[in-house]
Amino acid sequence: MTVVEQATFDCRQAFADELRALARLDDRIVAVCNDSVGSSNLVGFREEFPQRLVNVGIAEQDLVGVAAGLANAGKIPYVCAAAPFLTGRALEQIKADVAYSNAHVVLCGQSPGMAYGELGPTHHSIEDLSWMRAVANLDVIVPADPDQTRAAVRWAATAGRPCYLRIPRFKVPAVTPPDAPFAPGTAVRLTDGDDVTVIAIGSLTSRALDAADRLRAEGIAVRVLNMPFVDPIDTRAVLAAAAETRGIVTAEEATVTGGLGAAIAAIVAAARPAPMRILGIPRVFAPTGDTAFLLDHFGLTADGIAAAARDLFDASGPGGGRG
User: 74 in the Ramachandran plot: left (φ > 0), alpha (ψ -120 to 50) or beta?
Assistant: First the structure.
């Protein structure tokens, strides 16, 4: 049997290409980085717009503060830095200078999750969704593939408000349908199913689709929702899943203490209680290893998602748990 490998694509390149395309049309767009021109894929931007790239060096608090100043002067700054350092070192500036001040700053967390696997817990960005969701007036966006990344970059340019984008480091398959919506509080339904719902973001979206394929062969129909906006989230789609299927599995490359799963659990608990399985990284420092090893270690794989969905399906018994 011939095995055909699924094509994968670099979201960082899609981000960089779309940013340059927008900059050609709008001279208010600038890039701000922290000695990360190469790792943020800004080499092409620097060559094309040398006067519109601000490199503050390794000083993340200044990075965000300068960006807020540029926004107040009428620019649209895209702040590009490794996610663990952008969100960890500059959290106060993100809160006070950007969100509280309602500055139109686009915070672009590069290489989030466990993309820097071998560099260990200091370089893992698994807390960023919890931190960013805790800050008021800040949209939190996790694109699933290059098309959604481009849509996020375009949307952010006209949003007129603060937002945080998570830009994956490793390549992912294309999963977004051509006519998929991209708007705050809007999920993308990738498959239909009335047995179990899987809600996934970012790098876990393609794995959720693989899990749904495997379960379909077992007679389990899985509804897969991609939730690009973790905040504001699509409450209607969550409540429909709770009402129409036997339970909800959430999958994210982030700690489970405050990200996608926590957001959905709060909605479900308050309005439509339903069984859930929240997949992510527990409240531990992840071990050192490459990204593939770490995702497997925490069960963030197609097999792991399928097992969680199967467990919900089996636990509901004959006829399901829908009310």
Answer: left
Q: Please, what sign has the CA dihedral across residues 181, 10, 262, 155? A: negative
The values of phi and psi at residue 268, to 5°, are -65, -45
| DSSP 3-state of 108 | strand
Quick one: how far is CA 163 from the chain centroid?
A: 12
248: Cβ contacts below 8 Å, ≥ 6 apart: 196, 197, 198, 199, 238, 241, 242, 264, 268, 274, 275, 276, 277, 312
* Distance, CA of 65 to CA of 122 (rounded, Å): 23
| Residue position matching structure tokens 């817990």 | 121
What would the pLDDT profile of 163-203 be if each residue is shown by its tens digit?
A: 999 998 888 999 999 999 999 999 999 999 999 999 999 99
pLDDT range class, residue 317, cuts 50, 70, 90: low
- The token pair at 117 is 């696997």
CA pair distance 232, 238, nearest whole angstrom = 12
- DSSP 8-state code for residue 161: S
Say if residues 265 and 91 touch (Cβ distance below 8 Å): no
Determine the distance from the C-alpha atom of residue 202 to the mean position of all C-alpha atoms in its chain, rounded to a whole number.
4
Q: Which residues contact 293 (CB under 8 A, 6 or more apart)?
A: 117
Query: d(Cα 174, Cα 272) in Å, to the nearest integer?
Result: 32
- CA 127/CA 132 separation, integer angstroms: 9
Amino acid making up residue 221: A
CA nearest 9: which of 160, 193, 174?
Answer: 174
What is the tens place of the pLDDT at every residue in 122-158? 999 999 999 999 999 999 999 999 999 999 999 999 9
Contact 118, 162 (CB under 8 A): no
